[in-house]
Amino acid sequence: MLRSVRSRRRAGTLLAALLLALSSLAGPAAPAAAAVTPVSVFGAWHCSNDACLWGTVRGAAEFDSQNHWLINRGDGRPSVNLVVLSFVNPLRLLNQTTDAGNINGVPRGMTQEIVNYFTARGIRVMFSIGGITYTGDWDTALAQNGTLLGQRAAAVATQFGVGIEIDYEQNTGPNLTQLQNFISAYRAVHPYNAAGTDPAARLTIDVAAGDRWLIDINRKASADWLRTDAPVLDFANAMVSARQPSAATAQSNWQEHIDGKSQYSPPVPPLAPAKFTGGLYIAEGSKVRPECTNYGTSVTKALAPYVQTAAPNGAGTTSGMLGFMFWAAERPSTRGIGTAPPNTCEGGVGAGAQALGVPVPLPALRQS
Predict the structure, then answer these.
(1) What is the pLDDT of residue 287?
(2) Residue ranges per domain, the chain?
(3) Residue 24 reports pLDDT greater than 70
(4) Is the pLDDT of residue 205 over 90?
(5) Predicted confidence (pLDDT) at residue 70 exceeds the cutoff of 50
(6) The pLDDT of residue 3 is above 50
(7) For residue 33, what pLDDT is reported?
(8) Residue (of 348, 356, 355, 293) closest to 322 by Cα position
(9) Dihedral sign from CA coordinates of 151, 157, 163, 167
């Protein structure tokens, strides 16, 4: 009996060794599949037909003739679920300027009719305050009265039923104290709305493509305004870089936000993937990008797996960025190619919206 037990033990030991050897030959166990989170935000900045001035009133029929692809990708559904009309001059808004191009600081082309053109199709609309051209005017307006500027932005949001985007591109010494006053004043009128049911409560900010430009703004936004435990702003847009990046370069830039920059002094903290989108060009200079015309060969398609699975690394708990933003609809430059006919974007942005199952209207956004 004892010999039999020993024999069985020896056989068991040999079997275990054999199984271990076979498992080593088979290689390491496959990693667990990354959690896939569907894209929530799929939007476009819009520059009207005059290089982002929005200086003239446009009728709905004429506007539709140049922008129909945004509301119909070919199957009757919109190509995007968010449009950001760009730009409002912050100093003119503060001063309530009425002149040839503005009424009470709002560009004359940003009318209720244009807002309704999009919202009637379930597309959320925001007004962007700033842009690189108006960086100095942001500085001046904030120095004069950041609180009043925030109140006037909130009044515009109420009047038109839109959200507001902060596009303050000051790379050196931004006035963060007064920008905080702007945000606090806006939130006093339109409190943070996690459900996303109040369009005027949507308040976002633009940050750099990665963490190596607009460092002070990136740091402040990640540390204080985009936290998942105490959110102040809804989300950030990682803006386009100087030119259309490769998929690898864009991913590297966006990963910088997720990782933060601990080596900086003071450090830039990590940003939750659920708190930002990534920006790409649809038309750039004299080139119409596949982002506009051919989703199958686009950087958007190449990046979609990363955008839907990017894992948090110090902030947030859910995988996946919020989605994509595209620069820019219609005519962002007086000399470059835009997205008006014949260069419309049903085959790029529209096909991408279909392939990714982009929801319209914009859903409630993840909070973690």
Answers:
(1) 76
(2) 36-355
(3) no
(4) yes
(5) yes
(6) no
(7) 56
(8) 356
(9) negative
- Average pLDDT on 171-186 reads 98
Half-sphere exposure of 238 (CA within 13 A, CB side): 31
Class of domain 36-355 (CATH, top level): alpha beta
Q: Scan for tokens 């990708």, then name that residue.
A: 73
The size of the chain, in residues, is 368
Q: CB of 35 within 8 A of CB of 309? A: yes
Residues in CB range of 154: below 8 A, 6 or more apart: 164, 185, 186, 188, 189, 190, 200
Q: Is residue 345 exposed (0-12), middle (13-18) or buried (19+ Cβ within 10 Å)?
A: buried
Picking from 220, 229, 337, 310, the residue whose alpha carbon sits closest to that of residue 268 is 220
The full DSSP string for 353-365 is: HHHTT--SSPPPP
CA distance 207 to 210: 8
Residue type, 313: N
Alpha carbon distance, N-terminus to C-terminus of the chain: 62
Q: Label the pairing between strands 287-288 and 283-284.
A: antiparallel
Partners of 324 in the β-ladder: 42, 278
Asked which of 5-9, 297-301, 325-329 is least confident by mean pLDDT, the reply is 5-9
Q: What is the mean pLDDT of residues 171-184?
A: 98
Single out the residue of 327, 280, 277 nearest to residue 307, CA to CA: 277
In three-state secondary structure terms, 282 is coil
Per-residue model confidence (pLDDT) at position 34:
67
Under the banding of pLDDT at 50, 70 and 90, the label for residue 106 is very high
pLDDT at residue 1 greater than cutoff 50:
no
Instruction: Record the tokens describing residue 45, joined without a space.
Output: 């900045």
Neighbouring residues of 180: CB distance < 8 A, sequence distance ≥ 6: 146, 220, 224
Distance CA(219)–CA(203), nearest Å, equals 18
Q: Looking at the predicted structure, is the pLDDT value of residue 20 above 60?
A: no
- Alpha helices (H) along the chain: 2-26, 60-71, 90-95, 112-119, 135-160, 176-189, 215-220, 247-259, 290-293, 299-309, 351-355
